[in-house]
Request: fold
Amino acid sequence: MNNENNCIAVLTSGGDAPGMNAAVRAVVRSAINRNLKVYGVKRGYNGLLNGDVVEMNLRSVSDIINRGGTILYTARSEEYNTPAGVKKAADYCRSLGVRGVVVIGGDGSFRGARDLSGAGIPCVGIPGTIDNDIACSEYTIGFDTAMNTALEMVDRIRDTAQSHDRCSVVEVMGRRCGDIALQTGIACGATSILVPEKPHDIDTMVVDKILNTKATGKKHFIVVVAEGVGGTNEIAKYIEEKTGIESRATVLGHVQRGGCPTLRDRVMASAMGHHAVELLYNNIGNRVCALQGGKIVDFDITEALNMKRVFDEELYNIAMDVSI
Ligand code: F6P
Reply:
């Protein structure tokens, strides 16, 4: 960047994820280290529409690496999702002298970044969502923390399921992506794991499995259901009806979105935040940071948005094999 081009902005958008603060911190510090001025934009793209920005300094991001949520707040903006909204946001960026924006969020946020790039403001996306559902990246910030929170909760539920010889059906987050369910299900030793990517026949995949496992002497059961499969209460009732085993449903919900980010999320967020600034500093925009083969790389935003996510069949088969 040259001297007239020395200002960037950072925003968080969509559902919050633990580790977003660590990414904001890395963006701010990497930018200041390169003599770039940094604006923090409040409440996602809304902040670009109503001028809600604040200049960040080294100390504005102190003591946040360990905090969940996002100090910049987040939102899903309806006004921004119109051509007029995008133009207004781009004009505002120009009026501030902002030449590049780092957008931390999921697919929806990246569509916004693509549009802003198209309106002349280069953007770089950082995958921040607990769902791990960004096709171009093997990892999204927040995923590890969310899974570990879900695992701790299921371990607690298991204690009471075991004491009562019950079946506990636990719903974890993930609308279109079953990664949280799959990995949490393996780690907690679930008898059944239902994910949106695979057919979920309750009779064969849950009821028969429970009955077969019961025949080998097991007396309590955990079934992990991804949010995208849904019907958690109904599944619990159905299991009780078909097996005679008392069953309870628990929907974990937003507890998975909060809390202190794990080491993996903090490190990944720091590396991606740094990479995003390097790109903008070198006048490269319209990119999404990603993890591929353990390395931080980047893709064209449109290319990234067109990629199809590949479900981990191998891990799913392992889960089916060991849950007996
Ligand atoms: O994308 C993250 C996520 O937590 C999904 O798992 C869930 O479906 C969605 O956000 C819920 O979003 P909200 O409750 O914020 O509308």
